[in-house]
Amino acid sequence: MTNIRESDLPGIGRKFQIDTRSGDKLVIIIHDDGRRELYHFDPDDPDSSISMVTLDDDEARQVAGIIGGLTYRPKALESVEVALNDLVIEWYKVEPNSKCVGRTIGELQIRKRTGATVIAVIDKDQKQTVNPGPDYVLKAETILVVMGERQQIKAFKQLVSNGSE
Amino acid sequence: MEHIVFEVGLALTLMAVAGLISIRLRFSIIPFLILIGMTVGPHAPQLGMVDLRFIQSAPLIEFMGRLGVLFLLFYVGLEFSVSRLIRAGRSIAIGGTIHVGLNFVLGLLFGWMMGWPLKEILVVAGIVTVSSSAIVAKVLVDLKRTANPETEMILGIIMFDDVFLAVYLTILSGLLFSGATSVGGVILSGGIALGFMLAILALGRVAVPWLNRVLNIGSTEVFLLVVFAALFLISGFGETLHVAEAIGALLVGLVLGETEHRKRIEHLILPLREVFGAMFFFSFGLSIDPRTLGGAVWPALGAVLLTLVGNFTAGMLAGRSAGLSPKAAANIGLTIVARGEFSIIMANLGKSAGLLSILQPFAALYVLILAVVGPLLAKESKAIFTTLNKVFKWQSPRETKASTAPHGKKEHG
């Protein structure tokens, strides 16, 4: 794991210092007023920052989504997840040989049986459906955006790939 | 009292204008508020038709300024937590001790050299010791230094200053208001004040689970009323025990800061602190007769000089002891010189205890100078360090060059 150091800045916010594997030093300040500042420090002189970026709250969230691979998934990664306290949002791709292909969300009783909720689907042709209904038919290569606690997500994956828990 | 709302409206307009100017000049608002208060105070000359002397509303504005002190210290209490201080670490305890110790001793020495009586010396030592959290934190944010390695140390010192202020204010207010004359009496009254403080804190600690339940109120209106009631009741009650009301506010803040409702209270109180805090500086300005400033010029300049040297030395020692580079250490010393709200609270304490009247104009000038000079020094810290480094040779020229080469063109905002 990359070394991340957190510290309080009383009256200002919170500081996260990240020494990346590539040797860069990145400092992120989350201000109490919602602003985020990203500082990139000179590796040879830890006292002065080379560059900095200020983002307001919604910009920061968008950037977080981009860096986190939510809008464009790096090819190398299998699935992406975001954790919000105990809740996890995960991007799950339906495999062609999965048992659920051709069945509807309602048929599978996903929420009832696993507790997890499919909050959005992205079809192979990039068509997005937010909050799909129970008659939504799952197809191969469809990406399911699913939300739930870790246990529920686990049960969900079992259900979708095997057709049962 | 006919046009009281109009007068307060005028006062607020002036303060807003001062604020707009301060933003334009990219400066702390504090000196502007004091200055504008001074120019329209009851001592100001009347200019023909325009009479901006807030005579009718002066008591009201003064009261709002007092509320400002309450909110200011209440917020300090809320923000402060023991666990946070412990987490802040040993190096900060050392840095804070150096800063407070050095400046306090210099303050005592200064008061003694001025030939002032003991109580005045003690008040002056308080005035020159405590840095302004408001100005320093703002300077760090404005200059985009929040990510720098020395920032934690600076904020740690500021936090340590707040703790010192709380304890010192308690002891001092006990001492000034009890009327004790003998050494034993002085120790006793200081002890009573400290005892009151510890008792409230101990009680508060026990009461935290209970407070968590009591404060579980959905309605913002009722929630605020309960918090306000606690704040005013305990601050007011403290006063009857010769404990300054500011201390009461601080204690309420400390206790409520331990509850799980801290964030909500902070959120609701912050705008009040801003508005009434501004009133506080303005009303302090109102209370200063510009004609009395003349007699305070030399003492104030002397104290400023002493503070600059003391803070720079303290910053250097603290920074080096924490293993920071000389440049970062210099940044500490040059950032923490700003003085503001706490120095004025100290001076007001002296006023209400009936001490020498020079303390008020002295504090006004002292705060005005350092509230302006402090942020300037912080801004120019690189140039100052480079110059001083030629004399003291903390850092070899090669290193300095490497560290000053990049950077430079992005300090706007």
TrEMBL record, chain A:
This is Potassium transporter. Residues 77-162 form the RCK C-terminal domain. Transmembrane segments: none annotated. SUPFAM superfamilies: TrkA C-terminal domain-like. GO terms for molecular function: monoatomic cation transmembrane transporter activity. GO terms for biological process: potassium ion transport.
UniProtKB/TrEMBL annotation, chain B:
It is a multi-pass membrane protein. Its main location: membrane. GO terms for cellular component: membrane. Keywords: Membrane, Transmembrane, Transmembrane helix, Transport. It is found in: Membrane. One of its GO terms (biological process) is proton transmembrane transport. Residues 14-378 form the Cation/H+ exchanger transmembrane domain. It comes from the Bacteria. The keyword Transmembrane applies. GO terms for molecular function: antiporter activity. The keyword Transmembrane helix applies. Pfam families: Na_H_Exchanger (PF00999). The chain crosses the membrane at residues 12-40, 60-80, 92-115, 121-141, 153-177, 183-203, 215-234, 268-288, 300-318, 355-378. Belongs to the monovalent cation:proton antiporter 2 (CPA2) transporter (TC 2.A.37) family. This is K(+)/H(+) antiporter YhaU. It comes from Calditerricola satsumensis. The lineage of its organism: Bacteria, Bacillati, Bacillota, Bacilli, Bacillales. The gene is yhaU.
